[in-house]
Amino acid sequence: MEIKELGVDKNIVTKEYIFDGTDIKTAERRTLNELNRKYTVEGFRKGKVPLSVFKMRFGKDFYDYFVFEQLLEEVYKSFKEETNLLLIPEIVEKEINSENGRVVVNFHKKPVAKVEVEKIKVRIANKEQVLDNYLDLRLNSLKEEHAVLEPKEGPAEFDDLVRVRVFVVNKETGKVLIDGKEDEYVLYKEDERPTVKNVVGHKKGDVVEFDREFAGKEGESVTYHYKLEILEVYKRNLPELTDEFVKNNLSELHLETLEELKNKIREEGTKIYDDEIKHSIREQILAQLPDVTELFISEKTIDYAVRLIVNNMKEENKYEDYVKKYETEEKALESLKDYYVTELKKESAIEKLAKEYNIERKVSDEELEKYAEILAPYWGISVERAKVLAKEKPEIREEIENMIFVDKVIDKAAEKVQREIVDVNKEGEESEENN
Fold it and tell me: What main location does UniProt list (predicted)?
């Protein structure tokens, strides 16, 4: 077998495998042995059918299929020497006869990527504003938690606490959903629930009734009748936050002054802010990577990749359902193509940046355990169990190692991206002037 390189098209290297008469004869003998093991021919003993009979019986397929399969084994052996492959090699041509043969193969290599992370712009919430909002929220929560309740005879007002007995019945069927359950809640002004709005203005002993309509099955509406018996109304007296309040009510924190409490809360807020911003920056960079990445890739590679994806989806009986999501099959294929290119750009960019930053995939056990601690709540298992899985399950370990690897690369890239500080309002949302 002789191998010739026919040419290079961006990331595709095309090679020709040439077989002479000796190669063909060897492949014929192997084919004969294989066919004699699988087939019987009337008039011949099992395993004793001559080559000429099989040639006559299978005709053109004898060389195009059976001998070709034998030659492919030699071709496949050479694939092991190919490096940096993106996809499985693609056989694009074949010509086999009794005298010689040739097989042409496209090797789709991983494309070269050009990444300009400096063009990425991430938006970061104003730290001081976020911490001020967090401080206000925590201090207000402390006031709410330590509110002094004073029974009142007058009508309930916003910010009062009410204790009610609740009855809910399906108005059409009479089915009882809630039968006298006691509940209590604060009447916050911003709370739009009817159970709040309808109670305001009523006093202890009053009965409040109203209907609520909900969407039911198949677009039909369902109406429920609510009856609330007001058992008690309390005026909430919020305490003033002072040094004395901190010492008397928050002794478990071992703090002496309100200022110490504020500093502690800001420390907590800073940690939360740093973690959230780090996560946000990672997400923003990953989302923008395809836009700042240019691939030196042939369209033939992209088309071949989509064909492989489609074949896999068909084998799993998923392709028809996928196409139904789009107006035409053409649009479905275009969506697959866009998705593949986008993901390939991300993957190629990560690999390129990793080499540039000298970041290896190797992960320590300590890093694995730390990541397992983060994932444990999402998996719904204990931290110790998560650590064991991360170390001992190869597929899980590989997945986590890749997550850590990507995080390392993105965190390094974050040092070079543009950053825009965004003001936030009291609700923690971006201010309108930023939009």
Answer: cytoplasm
Count CB-CB contacts under 10 A for residue 335: 14
> For the whole prediction, is pTM greater than 0.85?
no
Q: Residue 186 and residue 141: Cα distance in Å, rounded?
A: 13
For 253-320, the DSSP string reads GT--SHHHHHHHHHHHHHHHHHHHHHHHHHHHHHHHGGGGEEEE--HHHHHHHHHHHHHHHHHTT-HH
Average pLDDT over residues 194-221: 89
Q: What are phi and psi of 46, to 5 degrees?
A: -55, 125
Question: Taking the domains of the chain in order of start, what are their residue ranges?
Answer: 2-110, 147-237, 260-300+340-434
Residue 104, exposed/middle/buried by CB under 10 A (0-12, 13-18, 19+)?
Answer: middle
- Using the structure block, give the residue that is written with the tokens 């986008």: 342
- The CA distances from residue 93 to 105, 106, 304, 369, in Å, are 7, 9, 15, 50
- Beta-carbon contacts of 64 under 8 Å, excluding residues fewer than 6 positions away, are 94, 96
When pLDDT is averaged across residues 165-178 and rounded to a whole number, the result is: 93
pLDDT band, very low/low/confident/very high, at 428 (cuts 50, 70, 90):
low
- So what's the pLDDT on residue 431? 57
Q: Write down the pLDDT at residue 82.
A: 87
Rounded-to-integer distance, Cα 101 and Cα 369, Å: 55
- Name the DSSP letter for residue 389: H
User: Cα–Cα distance between 200 and 158 in angstroms, integer?
Assistant: 7
pLDDT digits (tens, 9 = 90+) for 101-130: 999 999 999 999 999 999 999 999 999 999
